[in-house]
Amino acid sequence: EALPHPYPNSNNTLTITYDIIHSPSYRLPVLYLTCTTTANHPISSPETLYRALVPPSMKPQIQAIGVMGAVSATEHPITGLPCYFVHPCKTADAMRPLCAGGGVGAERYVLRWLGLVGGGVGLNVPAALAVDIAGTGEV
User: Fold this and answer.
1) Which run of H or E residues covers position 44?
2) How far separated are the first and last CA of the chain, in Å rounded?
3) CA nearest to 28, candidates 100, 102, 116, 101
4) How far apart are CA 110 and CA 113, in angstroms?
5) Which end of the chain has the lower number of beta carbons within 10 A, N or C?
6) Cα 135 to chain center, whole Å?
7) Which residues have CB under 8 Å from 48's CB, separation 6+?
8) Backbone φ, ψ for residue 121 (5° rounding)
9) Which of 77, 63, 65, 69 lies closest to 33 in space, CA to CA?
10) Which of 67, 21, 16 is nearest to 37 (CA)?
11) Is residue 73 a contact partner of residue 94, using CB atoms and an 8 Å limit?
12) What are the tens digits of pLDDT across the range 12-39?
């Protein structure tokens, strides 16, 4: 999924390509973000990414996680290109109450995970899609 976002203080548009890739180390999905401007320049600083994507109300929470914050620069595991990722170190703990009681299939798990991880970096699942995938009013 590639989504355009207004780029702060510029006429450029920031294009974010979101990739969800299963991490064999963490044994859960990890969200990768590849960011370029309309001038095809990569975003080279996490601060720029935070300004462009992270809602102001969530910025303190996201920046407080780990040494570098919840969003860190890395190499994309498939393309090998520079990108950012939402660090998965606390994901399992955060997902535990969302999946309590079992009976959460893969689609519902991913929807709940996206709600937890994606909203902090500009990736939101439309409610109609979530309800359609869940098959009930409960996601």
Assistant:
1) none
2) 21
3) 116
4) 5
5) N
6) 24
7) 8
8) -130, 30
9) 77
10) 16
11) no
12) 677 888 999 999 988 889 999 988 777 6
61-102 confidence digits (pLDDT tens):
666 654 445 788 889 999 998 888 988 877 888 888 888 877
> Which parts of 38-134 are beta strand (E)?
71-75, 82-86
Sign of the CA dihedral 108, 113, 119, 124?
A: negative
Tokens linked to 2: 């590639």
Q: How far apart are CA 85 and CA 87, in angstroms?
A: 6
Distance in angstroms (rounded) separating the CA atoms of residues 17 and 49: 13
Query: Catalytic site residues?
Result: 89
Q: Look at residues 44, 118, 40 and name the one whose alpha carbon lies nearest to residue 83.
A: 44
